[in-house]
Automatic annotation (TrEMBL):
Residues 11-176 form the 3-hydroxyacyl-CoA dehydrogenase NAD binding domain. It comes from the Bacteria. Pfam families: 3HCDH, 3HCDH_N. Transmembrane segments: none annotated. Keywords: Oxidoreductase. Residues 180-278 form the 3-hydroxyacyl-CoA dehydrogenase C-terminal domain. Gene3D superfamilies: N-(1-d-carboxylethyl)-l-norvaline Dehydrogenase, domain 2 (1.10.1040.10), NAD(P)-binding Rossmann-like Domain (3.40.50.720). The keyword Metal-binding does not apply. InterPro entries: 3-OHacyl-CoA_DH (IPR022694), 3-OHacyl-CoA_DH_NAD-bd (IPR006176), 3HC_DH_C (IPR006108), 6-PGluconate_DH-like_C_sf (IPR008927), 6PGD_dom2 (IPR013328), NAD(P)-bd_dom_sf (IPR036291). The keyword Oxidoreductase applies. This is 3-hydroxybutyryl-CoA dehydrogenase.
Length: 317
């Protein structure tokens, strides 16, 4: 059987929010990484963030290359496209990728929900293109949704998953692509209902956040919704679904409340005002504590899942 060599080099396209944490993930896992961005300033910021993140550690940051131009790549490289969520920009990147990569180079797109087939429409070899949807920050969050296009080969999906596992990730393969994939569909379903409850005046902002965080939020850190419903009882869930669904928000349009806030420039932390008020100090503190907190929550969630797997195994003996 023909053997494909292991991936030794990651080429990340786009040095933005995601590209920077992707580079961090690669370096922390001792991989060479080349980050390509059309803006030199974005590359400079990426360099500063890597120096900051790995100062005083044994991580070799000389494995990081920052370029505004492409280099030739072979099958020991993976290209991870992480440019803005715009079909034209992503298609242009695919065309550059094909010009510089040999046909066996694996290419993945970090799109949050665009069609993989639409991104690969003009490619000569779209069979080696898959979706690999990371979550922010990519160096911390374990899950990665892996999405096949209509012509993606099983071998390309398998290579993508093997690569992700080597990075310590938990790749989960979708059977087919749907807009927003899985996680964003669920996140938007939750937010549609949250915004509807605010609009109807059922609850205020702080109370809503408190209820969600300290009820379903903390539970979801330990088990997925289906496993949780098993423990709760499917009959109980059905009884509630029977009377509740007719009252849930079903709008096909984004919430008016959201439209109004964005129209008046209330974009969240980056504009100083969203649902809450923000200043630089508050943002910095929140980001630092969130990162530290996430590390702890992820460790607890991993440990819990590990113990559960062990006890399931014991029970089946
Ligand atoms: N931000 C998130 O939370 C998040 C989470 C998961 C997935 N994503 C997805 O990841 C992708 C990137 O998102 P982001 O938030 O990092 O965007 P971003 O705007 O922060 O960064 C994009 C970078 O791409 C660069 N760029 C633009 N055109 C380019 C080109 N032709 N060649 C090279 N570089 C180019 C820009 O200069 C910019 O630095 C999007 O598809 C987004 O949907 C984002």
């Amino acid at each position: 059987m023909e053997m494909t060599p292991p991936i030794e080099r990651a080429v990340v396209i786009g040095a933005g929010t995601m590209g920077t944490t992707l580079a961090k993930l690669m370096l922390a896992n001792r991989l060479s990484v080349c980050v390509i961005d059309s803006r030199a300033a974005a590359l400079e910021t990426c360099r500063q963030k890597m120096d900051q993140a790995f100062a005083g550690t044994d991580v070799d940051t000389t494995r990081l290359a920052l370029q505004t131009h492409w280099s030739r790549e072979d099958e020991s490289s993976i290209v991870i496209e992480s440019v803005p969520e715009n079909l034209e920009i992503k298609r242009a990147v695919m065309s550059r990728a094909e010009a510089y990569c040999d046909p066996a180079t694996l290419i993945v797109t970090n799109t949050s929900g665009l069609s993989i087939d639409a991104i690969g429409r003009d490619m000569r070899h779209p069979e080696r293109l898959a979706g690999a949807h990371f979550f922010n920050p990519a160096d911390l969050i374990p899950a990665v949704e892996v999405i096949p296009g209509a012509v993606t080969t099983k071998a390309a999906l398998h290579r993508t998953c093997t690569f992700l596992e080597r990075l310590g990730k938990r790749p989960a393969v979708l059977k087919q692509a749907v807009p927003g994939f899985v996680a964003n569909r669920i996140q938007h379903a939750i937010m549609r209902e949250c915004l509807s409850l605010l609009e109807k005046g059922v609850v205020d902002i702080e109370a809503l956040d408190d209820i969600v965080q300290f009820s379903i939020g903390v539970r979801l850190a330990l088990s997925g919704p289906l496993l949780q419903r098993d423990l709760n009882g499917l009959d109980t869930h059905l009884n509630i679904a029977r009377y509740l669904y007719e009252d849930l928000e079903r709008t096909r349009e984004p919430s008016r409340l959201l439209e109004e806030r964005v129209a008046q420039g209330w974009l969240g932390a980056k504009s100083g005002q969203g649902f809450y008020r923000w200043d630089d100090q508050r943002i910095e503190g929140r980001q630092r504590r969130t990162r530290e907190g996430l590390e702890r929550v992820i460790a607890v969630a991993m440990q819990h899942t590990h113990e559960e797997k062990g006890s399931d195994h014991d029970a089946s003996k």
